[in-house]
From TrEMBL:
Family: Belongs to the AHA1 family.
Protein name per Swiss-Prot or TrEMBL: Vanillate O-demethylase oxidoreductase VanB
Domain Activator of Hsp90 ATPase homologue 1/2-like C-terminal: 12-147
UniProt superkingdom: Bacteria
One Pfam family named in its UniProt record: AHSA1
Chain ranges passing through the membrane: none
CDD domains in UniProt: SRPBCC_CalC_Aha1-like_5
Amino acid sequence: MSNSIEKSIEIKASRSRVWKALTDHRQFGAWFGVDIDAPFAVGKVSSGKITIEGFTHVPWTSTIKAMEEPGYFAYTWHPYAVDPDVDYSDEPETLVEFWLEETGGQTSVRVRETGFDNLPPHRIADALRANTNGWGFQLENIKKHVES
């Protein structure tokens, strides 16, 4: 079993437009399905609430690791931390990285999530499965958000 997820998508928009959708906390929230409390800042914790039906009980917490405009954005978080009766705060986090490359008026967005092998063994398979499906869904969401 692979301990990472990597997916990509082509978006018909400039890299600067996709960058804004990715790193502006309001736009990120609109396509990702989360109400984020404050702008993203490197080294700071981002918090809020998931707004996706069935997951509105889940808090959003991530730490912004890098914002290298216009091509690299990264944060850490607790993957698939959806059980309200579990405190995930002592678990290791995974690293989510985005790379943007523009060619001919289109932007390639690549996302990679790593670090699943550091999770408690009983959580690895579920987190990998959920986030593999989730990243496919979320890349389609950012594409729709940017292209509409």
